[in-house]
Amino acid sequence: MNILDFNALLVLAAQSDTIDIPCECVIHRADGWISRPATLDPALLVPVGTLREDPFVEPTFAEYHPGGTRYDSPDAPIAPRWYPYNRCDAAHCRNCGRAWLCYTEAGGYFVDPRIRALRAAPLVDAPLEA
């Protein structure tokens, strides 16, 4: 799967922002991270690329919230180098073309596929702190 750099992600998000047609993928409000609803067919989301820069390096679990947002906040920044974005894949809806971020939260006793709508406004090219 091809790695999406910040500019490619921004283009994908900007294109997605212009789509204004009804689709079953948007009945699920996902401005912030949510568990992928059981009613959303996973086959609807077609992989486009990944934000994982190097499959051999364990990315950080640190989150980027300079404005005091939380992981699931609708206005939380999408910062590709930070958790959970650094473990995401990007996909688009097979029917309408809207872009989504997808990753799997894996806890000690569960696996939870999660999604977030990819939008241009919250995208931030924030470097990791040294």
TrEMBL record:
Name listed for the protein in its UniProt record: Uncharacterized protein
Lineage: Bacteria, Pseudomonadati, Pseudomonadota, Betaproteobacteria, Burkholderiales
